[in-house]
Amino acid sequence: MKPVVSAFNAWSCTVLSVFAIVILSIIGSLFARNHHIMMGMEEDPEDNAAVAASIFIAVAVYAVSWIA
Questions:
Q1: Would you tell me how many other CB atoms lie within 10 Å of the CB of residue 62?
Q2: CB 3.0 to 4.6 Å from 5: which of 9, 14, 42, 46, for a disulfide?
Q3: % of the chain exceeding 90 in pLDDT
C-alpha cells in the first residue's frame, strides 16, 4: 500500500503533537493551579477548573493521536 503522506510530513506531525502535549499540559496546569499569569485580568475566564479540564481533554486527544 502506498503511503498517504511523505515520511517528512509524518514526522512533522509527530513532533508537532509532542510539542502540543507539552505546551498544553503546562498551560492546563497553570489554569488548574489558579496561577496569577492565567487568572490575573478582568477578561480572564472565571471558571478556571473548566478551562483546565478542556485543555487536558485536548492533551488527551493529542496523546491518543500520537500513540495511534
A1: 20
A2: 9
A3: 46
Domain count, the chain: 1
What angle (nearest 5°) sits at the alpha carbon of residue 53, between those of residues 52 and 59?
90
Q: Which cell goes with 15?
A: 513532533
Whether 54 is in a domain gets the answer yes
Q: What is the pLDDT of residues 9-20, one digit of tens each?
A: 889 988 988 999
CA 32 to chain CA centroid, Å, is 14
b/e sequence 19-41, b meaning 16+ C-beta within 10 Å: ebbeebbebbebbbeeeeebeee
